[in-house]
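subagent[fold] <- orchestrator: predict structure for attached chain, return tokens only, no commentary.
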Amino acid sequence: MEQIALPLTTASGPAQIVLGNANAHVAEALLAPESWPFRTAVLTGPPRSGKSLFARWFAESGKGAALDDAQAMDEDAVFHRWNRAQEEGTPLLIIGGEPPWTIRLPDLKSRLGGSLQLDIGLPDDEMARDLLFSLAAECGLPLPHDAADYLIPRATRSQADLEKLVATIDRLSLERKAPPHQGIWRAALEAVHGPDEPTLL
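subagent[fold] -> orchestrator:
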């Protein structure tokens, strides 16, 4: 499992970003902000995909500044923050939400439109497996190796849903006072996805 260890901690230890098909290009781009147009990058992606963790890693590693949740901010405020970064010569990582990000302020739209566009996608099977075990480790869930063989073909390719799935397995395991097994995995899948388990080929 390939991960970036972040210079910050959570209740369960060092925060980590699992790298895979969906986000490896983002990690690579954040290592070279001097190559960004206007020294600015715009990062978007689905919920719970690690956008804020990337922003914190970027800022705390000294690579530049980060503006999180910019999509929810006043556009004039975002534009002023972009101008300040230009004046200071500081690389700026701007975190939007799930694309598309509709920008109405013409000056901001043109500036961000000319910046490096980065988007986190959905994980493939290999990355989903890595995420599954990383999330289980974070909450101290002793998930056996064969759990992925059962869960991944039946789970949706969504970082948020994988997080819900692990949390549900953990909760059911505690409620039933039993280690996670196939019966618990099946119940967790039904709780997250409904009785008709999705299967992605």
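orchestrator: received. Logging for downstream: The chain is about 45% helix and 15% strand. The chain has two domains: 3-119, 125-193.
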